[in-house]
């Protein structure tokens, strides 16, 4: 018998609320399979099974408040293997379906994996394999899009894809059965046809369509309600006894009418008809999230932009002189972005408000410098984060940016790659932008926009000369950053870039 307890939940977090049990007593579980979700006032934490077995007893019910180390459930060993024959007996026995007892091996079910903190569902984007195709272990079968990243689901075994249970475009939750694979080489001489969308696992129905009322409010729901000035009792709850979960709160925010934008045209109740030269394409989850977060930033922050320009002569000369030796020594190309990251870190150290965030009525100052670098991909804009930039060399920064950019373009970014940035840099200059006003990436308080370098006449020592100039734009949250601080920050960035030797020498 194995005890499942509340894990360490992060610095300063001492308790949590049991949000949702994904397994019931008597269910078989696999090692590392998520069995329960805990909600804190900061994050949602998924608790996996430490080993394969049967969930024999649930100690802490949904809605209960538990402390670190508290007993959640008990897991008995050896049950998972014993349940396998029963699963085989329930396999389809139609003439079109392969027999589970085929000599080539057993049928293995493919389910939606855990996709990261607070991600409960996704949209099945595209199948890379079709029924009847041979697959290798760890070969990608299907891609699932969430509101944060695209997740590739690999094959757990070598075999043949015998059945696709969920069609493209369907919404799936963690643990939903999406396909079946027969182990071995000749497992599926006659694959099962792809079913109609109705065959996908139904979404769980709400246990209560009414608001959560007097039901206990979890810390996560309380925080979301406080940050968005909403009454938590008005959030319809789907949890036990009508309790609102974190997912309920986020869904309520998306559906909540925007009083601040009452002048905006109301969305049509039914989609309008498309014309003969129009095409209607459903927005991806990533694009929907980008749209929602950018609009939230405009609605919640007192956003203002200040501008300056920078003479790129010295950086361009330094880069031209040393780029070949730099690449030979470090294995990465010397670009402009590493200089900008270093300049930003220097400015953030002098003006800490730009590196802070608002949490309710408090300001959280961050004494670390994790810089988000906006990357444009075919699916939309993502902002992977380069960690501890104050401790990295130019080569370390260039290498990290190169690796993250490749992962972004290949759709390989993880949740960890996208979370926790303290400041963002967006380079519109690569697309030819001369000037723009970038939008904040909440909860950050500042974002720096880079633009194209162009030859312009400037006055130096009483003479007009032609210099490579770039406009810089700092958008900031005026609730926390004063105008003087914003201008000072941008001036420090300009000074560091125009005198890179002083910046790198720390003088």
Short description:
By secondary structure, the protein is an alpha+beta fold. 23% of the residues lie in helices and 27% in strands.
How would you describe this structure to a colleague?
It is built from 11 helices and 27 strands. The chain is an alpha+beta fold and 507 residues long. Among the domains are: 1-87, RNA polymerase II/Efflux pump adaptor protein, barrel-sandwich hybrid domain (OB fold (Dihydrolipoamide Acetyltransferase, E2P)), CATH 2.40.50; 297-505, 2-Layer Sandwich (Chloramphenicol Acetyltransferase), CATH 3.30.559.10. Strands 17, 20, 23, 24, 25, 26 and 27 form a 7-stranded mixed sheet that branches. α3 packs parallel to α4, α7 packs across α8 and α7 (337-350) crosses α10. The relative contact order is 0.09. The model is unreliable at 79-103, 186-190, 195-213 and 258-266 (pLDDT under 50).
What's the SSE blueprint?
Elements: E1 2-5, E2 15-21, E3 28-29, E4 34-39, E5 44-48, E6 53-58, E7 65-67, E8 71-77, H1 79-82, H2 84-89, E9 107-111, E10 121-127, E11 134-135, E12 140-145, E13 150-154, E14 159-164, E15 171-173, E16 177-183, H3 219-227, H4 246-255, H5 285-300, E17 303-311, H6 313-330, H7 337-350, E18 357-359, E19 362-364, E20 371-373, E21 375-377, E22 380-382, E23 385-386, H8 394-409, H9 415-418, E24 423-427, E25 446-450, E26 454-460, E27 463-477, H10 483-498, H11 500-505
Parallel strand pairs: 20-24, 24-25
Antiparallel strand pairs: 1-8, 2-4, 2-7, 3-6, 4-5, 6-8, 9-16, 10-12, 10-15, 11-14, 12-13, 14-16, 17-27, 18-19, 20-23, 21-22, 25-27, 26-27
Helix pairs in contact: 3-4, 7-8, 7-10
